[in-house]
Write the structure tokens for this entry.
Amino acid sequence: MTLEVIGISVLWLFLFGYIIVGSIDFGAGFFSAYSHWANKQHILHRIIQRYLSPVWEVTNVFLVFFFVGIVGFFPKTAYYYGSILLVPASISIILLAIRGSYYAFHTYGGTERNWYLIAYGLTGLFIPASLSIVLTISEGGFVEVGASGVTLDYGKLFASPLSWSIVLLSVTSVLYISAVFLTYYADEAKDERARALLRRYALLWSGPTMLSALLIIYQLRYHNPEHYANLWNVAWMLVISFLFFVITVWLLWRQRRFGWAFIALLFQYAFAFYAYGISHYPYLLYPYLTIYDGFTNETMAMALIVAFIAGLLLLIPSLYLLMRLFVFNKAYVKGKWEGGKG
Amino acid sequence: MNGYDPVLLSRILTGLTLTVHIIYATIGVGVPLMIAIAQWVGIRKNDMHYILLARRWTRGFVITVAVGVVTGTAIGLQLSLLWPNFMQLAGQVISLPLFMETFAFFFEAIFLGIYLYTWDRFENQKKHLLLLIPVAIGSSASAMFITMVNAFMNTPQGFEFKNGEFVNIDPIAAMFNPAMPTKVAHVLATSYMTSAFVLASIAAWHLWKGNRHIYHRKALHLMMKTVFIFSVASVLIGDLSGKFLAEYQPEKLAAAEWHFETSSHAPLVLFGMLTEDGEVKYAIKIPYALSILAHNHPGAVVTGLNEFPEDERPPLYIHYLFDVMVTIGVFLMVVAAAYWLGSIFRWKWTAKKWFFGLLVAGGPLAMVAIEAGWYLAEVGRQPWILRGYMKTAEGATSSAHVDTMLVLFCLLYMVLVIASAIVLIRMFRRNPVERELAERSNNGEVAP
Ligand code: HDD
Ligand code: HEM
Ligand code: HEM
């Protein structure tokens, strides 16, 4: 394995982490708002708050880690993506800022407003949609490199069916991933009513995610034939991913082993995400930037990898502690220590 | 696009984001330490007042952290969005501390989550206090790492520059550049001092209004002692920062001091005005003081601004920023010393209403000093973004939309700052300390 491949694998892992924890967070926000609107607030609110409260800041760090890491390992991405993403990324930042801060204001500061809840729910869908544009752009065809620098063709981007399918996948995935996780979480909490409702949502969104994924593959064929051809080389991964999808849906359907259903979902997304990433190789931005010409110098790469390993040694025990105390702690999940906050 | 200047707009937007971020970041660095001090004193003295202080500060802290996190995310992305050329070049050498910073954030975020939700989960309060240590270490470490990056922009090293590219890169040498020791130390000391003073100001505010509850007195006393220690440290390290500048960035010091001709026995110029033909008027001149600040010796030679090519001189208005910072620094140290001596010798005037008024002003003033200090450091680096290697104008984006983004971010920050202030005020108004004390004493936790 070359240093370049190690670097991109590490980053891809963290992006995957962000997609999972971010989706749970964004989807939970949407369900929370929706249930309020549909007068089902009493069923979902507590279970969602109990999960989100201790972990929301950690979710954000996954994103920070990714964008700092990619500029560290591949400084040229700062030049290419930095130049073109000013508007889309700024919009994402603003949405993230509103969502993050208002979550804290609401949860800890006790602001109680309906418009807040609506904004919170909707940003949960807009943020993944706006972030997913980066993946679309990376497929090439929307960027021009001229004498005055790199520019993005917004007209083309908005007219492209590919970008809309990717947006569709991001939104449906957010809802599906978070519904499956929260079903499991509600099951741990022995909250039957919440579990039943969330299980319905999970089943409801399973089909659309699969369809939009297929749609993307179909459109890739026309948009980026090279990537499409490479995707066939890893078709076996997509097949495995699909099998895991079947397992999740089946377990949900039979109402058994919700924990395993969520683990199968993790594998489903991991295989699909890595298949996508591997077939994207070696491009960071079709056709201008590969991981090889964008890479930092060797000394820095080694230093970053050493820092990464040292960092993991620090983080894994801490994350384990967080999980033990909150996410996988039966007493906490069931609502004991509710008054423990502050 | 008449007069559209992406470089200028990028500078304004960067400055704006950092101006907002630094308020919350300073609190983020300092307040965990103050909470830890209060909780520790509370455990040692078995005094529930201090524990309650720690609890209430923590609740407010969460709100400021949230804004710190989102504005930090903004500046982190904006570094690449607004300065793509700079990041592409500098990223080769200095991305290591940036990367390590994210681990510090991770560490802090995880333990803050745990700390917040485990107040009543441990029989032994000490175990709960232990959870705060990683939070304090994480946030101070993140300040250290980001300040290392900033120090690198001032005194870049750890590479060779050949044909417009960096080669033979040494990330460790880049991190431990000459600006690093004083900068990191000054930033940390001033963050602790400012956070302590902000908390002291809140207590002083209650006393000023006539509320003489022992809870506020204890809070004020604890924080003013802390302020005194860190303000002495800040001023001492500030003096070292001046010596650092004299040696490595003499043009910044010369511009800050309106010291044009190289000379020995240089006086320190305070305040004043600059006439059109470059004469200093109405200033207070402290003889030899600049020579002492720069080299610890009244007869030492201090390099003047005229030694530098005209297009490499920083703007002269940084003089006022320097004055503001130093004046506030000395003033706050004197106030803290007076408070402390007053409490030892039982001076009457340090318990008077006007003195509490001074203490109320101290917190905001310290924050002003932080902002002035950063503007001095950043504007004083101009026209360089990477001193000696890349001018600010070369680093910026050429995107056509910086103006719209500037407007959007202005709105965003206004909303964030105002909303966070309202939330904080309401949070503490709704649940005044008297009521919380009464409730807890009913539960047998505290004496009323
Ligand atoms: C409460 C805040 C505060 C106070 C009271 C002081 N400072 Fe300061 N100063 C800062 C907050 C600050 C800062 C915000 O932390 C800066 C900006 C960048 C940096 O490294 O620290 C800074 C920078 C800074 C610099 C520029 C360093 C550089 O650009 O590399 C100098 C020379 C001093 N300070 C000197 C002093 C002196 C002589 C003080 C004596 C009273 C003083 N400061 C008090
Ligand atoms: C947090 C406190 C800080 C404040 C208040 C601050 C403020 C400012 C201001 C006002 C400018 C515009 C200067 C001008 O154009 O005349 C600026 C520029 C800049 N600062 Fe800072 N800064 C801070 C810390 C940092 C740190 C820690 C870094 C880097 C890691 C940094 C990186 C930059 C960059 C890249 C620019 C743009 C280039 C330039 O104008 O020099 N700043 N900052
Ligand atoms: C260019 C300069 C800077 C950048 C790029 C930057 C980046 C960031 C980022 C990305 C975050 C959010 C991390 C998260 O998700 O938890 C953050 C938060 C934070 N930053 Fe900054 N930062 C800068 C300047 C500073 C400075 C100068 C300080 C301290 C003196 C500082 C101290 C902090 C702290 C303590 C936090 C944690 C949030 C809090 O506790 O309030 N930052 N910063």
Q: What stands out?
A: Chain A has a mean pLDDT of 84.
